[in-house]
Amino acid sequence: MKEDDEIRLVTREETFNDLAVRELAKGQAACMCRLQFKRCSKSECNSCPANKKYQNCIAQMSEYDQLRLDSYIATYYAKYSANPDQWMSHKRFVISYIRLFFLMVASMLIVGLFFGFMADLYINS
User: Fold this and answer.
1) For the whole model, what pTM was predicted?
2) Which residues cross the membrane (predicted)?
């Protein structure tokens, strides 16, 4: 049989350790997003029982698993950070949209004043 006609089937069995590392990375990435988008404070994070469990698990891992965990955390963090609205509290969410509204109004006002000033210069010249 020619090499082009061959079909290669590759299967990968995921061990419990692989699954545990991936789930731990999802949780850690979620905690990092909560901290970044100010849903939790640093003091709340330090006293959080889930964070303590994460730290205990990480301390018991081998170096290889810790490196894999770091790469998974980076991947999930990038994925979760793409949509910051899911990590904001309702109050923070409303404040961010009010701020955005005022920035838009201010920018329209500045542009309007600029064009008004330019029109005034054109008329008076």
Assistant:
1) 0.60
2) 97-119
CB 72 within 8 A of CB 25: yes
pLDDT of residue 79: 92
Classify residue 6: in a domain, yes or no. Answer: no
- Mind spelling out the 3-state secondary structure of 22-56? HHHHHHHHHHHHHHHCCCCCHHHHHHCHHHHHHHH
* DSSP H or E stretch at residue 72: helix 63-81
Residue 71 domain boundaries? 13-84
Question: Residues 20-67: pLDDT tens digits?
Answer: 899 999 989 988 888 888 788 888 888 888 888 888 888 998 899 899
CA distance 65 to 78: 20
Residues 35 and 76 in one domain: yes
CB atoms near residue 58 (< 10 Å): 14
